[in-house]
Write a structure and sequence with these properties.
The structure holds three protein chains of three kinds. Chain A folds into two domains: about 60 residues, Fumarate reductase/succinate dehydrogenase, transmembrane subunit (3 helical TM bundles of succinate and fumarate reductases), CATH 1.20.1300.10; about 40 residues. Chain A is about 75% helix and about 5% strand. A two-stranded antiparallel sheet of chain A has the order 1-2. In chain A, a hairpin with a 2-residue loop joins strand 1 and strand 2. By secondary structure, chain C is an alpha/beta fold. Chain C has three domains: about 300 residues, FAD/NAD(P)-binding domain (3-Layer(bba) Sandwich), CATH 3.50.50.60; about 120 residues, Flavocytochrome C3, Chain A, domain 1 (Alpha-Beta Complex), CATH 3.90.700.10; about 110 residues, Methane Monooxygenase Hydroxylase, Chain G, domain 1. In chain C, about 35% of the residues lie in helices and about 20% in strands. Chain C is built from 15 helices and 24 strands. In chain C, a hairpin with a 5-residue loop joins strand 9 and strand 10. The radius of gyration of chain C is 23 Å and the shape is globular. Chains B and C meet through helix 1, helix 2 and helix 3 of B and helix 3, helix 4 and helix 9 of C.
């Protein structure tokens, strides 16, 4: 077709137009927080390999308010990511028991339950193994 | 009789006349039972015969009258003026599509994509069917029914940022329709469609923004359809990776 | 003047249920043929999409094709051609099964077989349905299935302005491509018209905006007769503004019809006495036509209400309670809430009779062929006739399939027989293009407004060709329509753009509607009896002696249409009385 058309362009800040897009971009950005945490964790592991002194120094620096604040922020991001993700899960996972479809809310709750129990297990591991 | 009024700011683009769109304001009666489409019809009949838009059934099933109203993609036949009082109401063509004129978008791209996903019953033996009907229980019907409710209104494409950024993306409605046939127990074409949809422009482009399902007027849940497709695709891949000898 | 050219073997105008079915049938009949499907809207926008109820076909063992035929014929007040009806009822189950094989999501029984439900006027339940969106699912299934055939080429959003007829044969069409304004001639060896009805000639209708009788007018202008145009089916309960149909189920659940005094007025019209619980075939559950007629009588007595969109009465279901309404009538509530901002739990629903379906249409034989060689028609736009003077509920969707398929096959056979065409398509098309450019595009000084002429047409159709007709009222409408025919020649078009010019299309549609309206009024004037949907106050009785025949309206250039008559084919069922229970 030869008649001229108007082609709208999406600017780089397209996602600021709508609250739902902002939420989506925030969800995507939480992966940056995960990456930051992973890097810190890798440094932590490597400090172990570099000997007791380095490890203790690193552990000490992690107690600084800046690091604690950073970790709190990362935790917040992860919780946000998990909640938004679990809420979406029923759309991707349709489970049928015989003839009946399991309601979405049950699928979501199963995810939350899994999250809760795995967290509990990790807590138990941490307190029991590191506590002694 | 004095009548309450509301202003519509309508997107105008006349290719023979202007290079860039402009907004034109019209004042229309504000009535309780009027939807945005009724206001456009009023403009067309009494104020400005040159305004172009598509419409037909005015009962939410033909899928013609999707537009952006105050930034949200909606069926204008199901969007009351009253909701936006005292106004003004901004009416634009659906986002993410080239605009032919005024509120009319170009949708040939979608029509081509629709054909690509093979939205018809595929039988391995190429026979049309048994002597009588195929047997399909109400539960088997329910497996795909939701995905068969799509009216091709294009609201999901206009809500999808991925389609806006990557026009090659097959997109929500077409993928949901592929899924509608995949989940129909009469169909045997899943593999053929998977080949098409696991390519770069297929399901993996979707980042699960989820907006397509939010704006869908028929609760088709295209986002869900795509994610289920991804799960199936990933399962297939793992199977062929772990058990290359086993034919899918 | 630029003239674009395209060609195909079989050209189908209209891509609703009948058109798409015809396309598939033609493609199957001869895979070598190139099939063109032209439509002024994308196929899935076609009005078939709005049908809710279902499609009739005999499939259960307690039913028989003879029962289906009898229900159809008696429903049609013996105006149906019985050979066509017999063919129809026999083909119906095969067609419905094919649609099942193509993926139509028919509602099912627990054992997985197709479910059927009862419908008005049927002895035994035989209506196949896909929840309350039967037409929608049928249309989308057909459309998606056509995508399989590479030889089917679509011309989406092309608007046909003329059939090309040369040497006594239809050999193509001239059409405007909406997006660009380019004018095309599309040459074809056979043409099938499947453009649906023309409810938009009336002010109150369930029909969509696109139903402007285009195909009927195209054929009529090409010299083909319009048959039985006086038979117009009303539905008693539509919303006055939008024409949205409020299903009979509201009344079978116990809804009341009330006039302005809150009185259940149906008791005054020989429809039984009010009972607290609904009784079959009485009061609100009386036959559709009787309910519509009662409305007119109330209106004459000044006992209807006046609204912004004309007179109306109330359908009250509030007493059924929120629970029942939500459980049994959710779709009714959804329609009222979503599209008219009325909550039937709290408010009464304003309703009035609305035009629903045209029994008449392009005169065809049982193969869908018209009197013009190479021209076929199917669906609501055609009149075979199986619907007679009044269509049986849920026959129209089945008709799309049966006669769409039959017309597609016949047209394909015709096209296969014809060698390369020697028609002077170019010169005929050039004339039409010149006319289009002069008449519409360059017209700036016209003084008549589309909306005004449309309103006046509506008014005279409502008055003269409404539910009750009489000589006097009709004569008035006749002259009104004739003067509108003159005025439309002087229409003003403010839009001069070639790109998606919807104002230009509306103007052409309006001229189509006036042609069809003229045929309706003239046919109704000449039929001096009352039969089925055609009710005359001056001739209240059916007259089989004089009028057991189809009317055929032929267009005359400068005078009123000429009406001829053709006999009704009777095979097994001699005319009897149409009885309403009670």
């Amino acid at each position: 077709m030869d008649s001229k058309k108007y082609k709208p362009q999406m600017g780089i800040f397209w996602w600021t137009d709508r609250w739902s897009s902002i939420k989506f971009i925030l969800r995507e950005l939480t992966s940056v927080a995960v990456a930051v945490y992973s890097i810190i964790f890798l440094f932590y592991v490597s400090s172990i390999l570099q000997g007791k002194k380095t490890f203790e120094e690193f552990s000490e620096s992690l107690k600084s308010p800046a690091f604690i604040a950073l970790h709190c922020f990362i935790l917040l991001c992860l919780v946000f990511h998990s909640i938004t993700w679990f809420n979406l899960a029923p759309q991707a996972m349709v489970i049928k028991l015989g003839e009946k479809k399991v309601p979405g809310i049950v699928v979501a709750l199963m995810n939350y339950a899994g999250w809760f129990f795995i967290s509990l297990a990790i807590l138990w591991l941490v307190t029991n193994l590191l506590g002694t | 009789m004095s009548q309450e009024k509301i202003t519509l700011e309508v997107f105008r683009f006349r290719p023979e006349q202007e290079d860039n769109p402009v907004f034109q304001s019209y004042e229309v009666p504000l009535r309780k039972d009027w939807v945005v489409l009724d206001a456009l019809n009023y403009i067309k009949d009494y104020l400005d015969g040159t305004l172009s838009y598509r419409w037909s059934c005015r009962m939410g099933v033909c899928g013609s009258c999707g537009m952006m109203v105050n930034g949200t993609p909606v069926l204008t036949c199901a969007t009351f003026l009253q909701k936006f009082a005292p106004g003004p109401i901004r009416v634009e063509p659906l986002s993410n599509f080239p605009v032919v004129r005024d509120l009319v978008i170009e949708m040939t791209d979608f029509m081509e994509k629709l054909k690509k996903v093979k939205p018809w019953i595929i039988r391995k033996d190429n026979q049309e069917g048994p002597e009588g009907e195929f047997i399909q229980t109400p539960s088997q019907l329910a497996d795909y029914k939701q995905y068969s409710m799509c009216i091709n209104c294009m609201l999901c494409y206009s809500a999808c940022p991925v389609y806006g950024l990557e026009p090659g993306f097959t997109g929500p409605a077409a993928i949901a329709l592929a899924q509608r046939y995949n989940m129909d127990n009469r169909d045997e074409g899943q593999e053929q469609r998977m080949e098409l949809l696991s390519t770069d422009d297929g399901i993996w482009q979707c980042t699960f923004v989820g907006e397509c399902s939010e704006v869908c007027p028929k609760n088709v849940d295209p986002a869900g359809a795509i994610q289920r497709y991804k799960v199936a695709g990933a399962t297939d891949w793992w199977k062929s990776f772990l058990m290359p000898w086993a034919k899918p | 003047m630029v003239h674009f050219k395209s060609e195909c073997d079989v050209l189908i105008i209209g891509a609703g249920g009948a058109g798409l079915r015809a396309a598939i049938a033609a493609a199957e009949a001869n895979p070598k043929l190139k099939i063109g499907v032209i439509s002024k809207v994308y196929p899935m926008r076609s009005h078939t999409v709005s049908a809710e109820g279902g499609a009739a076909a005999v499939i259960k063992s307690n039913d028989s094709t003879d029962y289906h035929a009898y229900d159809t014929i008696s429903g049609g007040d013996w105006m149906s051609d019985q050979d066509a009806v017999e063919f129809f009822v026999n083909e119906a189950p095969k067609e419905m099964l094919r649609l099942e094989h193509w993926g139509c999501p028919w509602s099912r029984q627990d054992n997985g077989t197709v479910a059927v439900r009862p419908f008005g006027g049927m002895k035994i339940e035989r209506t196949w349905f896909a929840a309350d969106k039967t037409g929608f699912h049928m249309l989308h299934t057909l459309f998606q299935h056509t995508l399989k055939y590479d030889q089917i080429q679509r011309y989406d959003e092309f608007f046909v302005t003329k059939l090309i007829v040369d040497n006594g044969q239809c050999c193509g069409a001239v059409a405007i491509e909406l997006a660009t304004g380019k004018i095309f001639s599309i040459a074809a060896k056979a043409v099938i018209i499947c453009t649906g009805g023309c409810g938009k000639i009336f002010p109150y209708t369930t029909n969509a905006n696109i139903k402007t009788g285009d195909g009927m007018a195209l054929a009529y202008r090409a010299g083909v007769a319009l048959k039985d145009m006086e038979f117009v089916q009303y539905h008693p309960t539509g919303l006055p503004f939008t024409g949205i149909l409020i299903t009979e189920a509201t009344r079978s659940e116990g809804g009341y019809m009330l006039n302005k005094d809150g009185y259940r007025y149906l008791q005054d019209y020989d429809l039984g006495k009010p009972q607290p619980k609904p009784v079959l075939r009485s009061m609100e559950l009386g036959p559709r036509d009787r309910l519509s007629q009662a409305f007119v009588k109330e209106q004459e007595k000044g006992r209807t209400l006046k609204g912004a969109y004309g007179d109306f009465v109330y359908l009250d279901i509030r007493h059924l309670g929120e629970k029942t309404i939500n459980a049994k009538l959710p779709f009714v509530r959804e329609l009222c809430l979503k599209y008219e901002n009325i909550d039937p739990i709290k408010e009464m629903i304003p309703v009035r009779p609305v035009v629903h379906y045209m029994m008449g249409g392009i005169h065809t034989d049982i193969d869908g062929a018209t009197s013009l060689a190479g021209l076929y028609a199917a669906g609501e736009t055609a009149c075979v006739s199986i619907n007679g003077a009044n269509r049986l509920g849920s026959n129209s969707l089945t008709e799309l399939l049966v006669f769409g398929s039959r017309a597609g096959k016949s047209a394909a056979e015709f096209a296969s027989r014809i060698n390369s065409s020697n028609f002077s398509i170019d010169s005929i098309a050039n004339d039409e293009i010149k006319k289009l450019e002069n008449f519409f595009v360059r017209r700036i000084n016209g003084s008549e407004k589309i909306v005004e002429i449309r309103k006046e047409m509506h008014k005279s159709m409502e008055e003269g060709a409404g539910i009750y007709r009489s000589e006097k009222k009709k004569k008035k409408s006749q002259s009104a329509i004739a003067s509108l025919q003159q005025r439309v020649q002087n229409i003003s078009i403010s839009d001069h753009s070639a790109t998606f010019n919807t104002e230009l299309i509306s103007a052409i549609e309006l001229s189509y509607m006036l042609d069809v309206a003229e045929a309706v009024v003239q046919s109704a004037l000449q039929r001096k009896e009352s039969r089925g949907s055609h009710q005359r106050t001056d001739y209240p009785k059916r007259d089989d002696q004089k009028f057991l025949s189809h009317s055929l309206a032929y267009r005359k250039d400068l005078s009123l249409p000429e009406i001829k008559y053709a006999p009704v084919t009777i095979t097994k069922w001699p005319p009897g009385e149409r009885v309403y229970g009670r």
